[in-house]
């Protein structure tokens, strides 16, 4: 085996290594972007959960002021949803 053949093989391995290095860097960038997106989404969800908790408190306060039993209303809605789901499954 001559030196020319060995040099070609080494160059081929170096080219493959360079391509892999580029791909790893691309994946690293994509992962960083994904992490950023996940962090932003988590922040939005946390904000929405806070807003929802505030809205729930306001609705419960208004319901209590008007004499509405919120537990009964929630139970009724849950029962209706369960019934609808059971009917959908049986169809």
Overview of the structural elements:
Helix content is 92%, strand content 0%. It is mostly helical.
Strand content: under 5%
Q: What is the total tally of β strands?
A: 0
| Termini separation | 74 Å
Following the backbone from N to C, one meets helices and strands in this order, namely HH
Radius of gyration: 30 Å
- Count of helical stretches: 2
Class computed from helices, strands and strand pairing: mainly alpha
The main β sheet shows up as: none
Shape: elongated
What's the helical proportion of residues? Answer: over 70%
Mean pLDDT, to the nearest integer, reads: 92
Poorly predicted ranges (pLDDT <50, ≥5 residues)? none
How is the topology of this model organized?
Layout: H1 3-65, H2 70-90
What structural keywords apply?
single chain, 91 residues, mainly alpha, 2 helices, 92% helix, 0% strand, elongated, DUF5798 family protein, coiled coil, DUF5798
Gist?
The chain contains 2 helices and no strands.
